[in-house]
Amino acid sequence: MNEHRSTSPPSAAAHRRRRKGRARRRRGGRPALWVGLAAVVLLLAGGMALKGRTGSGHPDGAAAPTSTVQGEASPGASARTVSSAPSGSAEKKNDEKKEEDEKKAPASTASIPASGPGTFATARGGSGHVGGSQRMLTYRVEVEDGIGISPDEVAAEVEDILADPRGWTADGKVGFRRVSGDASDFRVRLATAGTVDRICGEYGLDTGGEVNCNVGQNVMVNLKRWLLATQYYADDVPSYRALIINHEVGHFLGHGHETCPGTGRLAPVMMQQIKGLHGCKVNVWPYDASGRPITGPAVP
């Protein structure tokens, strides 16, 4: 019986006990797995949070956008950062600007030669006829040798001055034409003070190394005045050049000196403005834009 009992199949109660044991083991394993997974998730989240705090807490360690860096740099550094031109190109532009400024800057008295050889070069070519035909005058433009000024450039300025509608052609009678041949009615001659003094002195005029004159066929222009103007025109040398030409050509046309017609009015072009304005306002033209003459009382 005993042997028979040992070989007999398990009872139903034992089978149930074994099933319950297996079920408990399975239930007991799941909590351990979930606990492990939760721990891994927590570790990952903690690492990400730690990394985020490190980046936001140290802005100096973070790379800033290029525009921010440029905006916070000093003005000099910012200019160098944003400049796309090569250094050689920038230096070339600086040199060109320096040369341009030097050309605009007035000459110094020390740099202007006081005397020259007394020989002249004539501007080439010629101009068309401007103004009226009742009194048609031809002229040459000459520049003393050795003073470093182009006769053609001076001729271009003189042409513009004599062709201006506010000039002597405004009366509808006088006309001008520049020539380069030997024969002409008068000559505009730019020369050193010494040469001007000598030529003007031959006619009994004392220009004192400072002023211009008209003698015979010569409209003598003092180089010093051409380059420096006077105190009233120091900031507008081209306008003073117009005054020189209009004043001395006016003498050639037969006009004498005039004075200021009244305080606040325009100074006549035949007034010796280098000696003072006497209450008048600067003016370099014999006529206004409407064709009215700008005149004043004659000087005895």
Provide a concise account of the structure shown.
With 300 residues, the chain is an alpha/beta fold.
Write the layout of secondary structure elements.
Elements (H helix, E strand, L loop, with lengths): L1 H6 L4 H46 L8 H7 L2 H8 L4 H18 L15 E3 L7 E2 L3 E10 L6 H13 L10 E5 L7 E6 L1 H9 L11 E3 L2 E5 H6 L8 H17 L47
Parallel strand pairs: 3-4, 3-5, 5-7
Antiparallel strand pairs: 1-3, 2-4, 6-7
Write a structural description.
- There is one protein chain.
- This protein has a domain at 120-254: Collagenase (Catalytic Domain).
- Residues 1-15, 23-87 and 101-106 have low confidence and may be disordered.
- It has 300 residues and is of the alpha/beta class.
- The chain has helices at 2-7, 12-57, 66-72, 75-82, 87-104, 151-163, 193-201, 223-228, 237-253, and strands at 120-122, 130-131, 135-144, 174-178, 186-191, 213-215, 218-222.
- It has nine helices and seven strands.
Please state the structural category. Answer: alpha/beta
CATH architecture of the domain at 120-254: 3-Layer(aba) Sandwich
Largest sheet, strands/sense/barrel? 7 strands, mixed
The best one-word shape is globular
Poorly predicted residue ranges: 1-15, 23-87, 101-106
Query: What is the ordering of alpha helices and beta strands?
Result: HHHHHEEEHEEHEEHH
Helicity level: 40-55%
Q: Specify Rg, calculated over alpha carbons.
A: 49 Å
CATH topology of the domain at 120-254: Collagenase (Catalytic Domain)
How far apart are the termini? Answer: 174 Å
CATH class of the domain at 120-254: Alpha Beta
What's the count of strands? Answer: 7
| Average residue pLDDT | 77
Strand residues, percent: 5-15%
Number of helices: 9
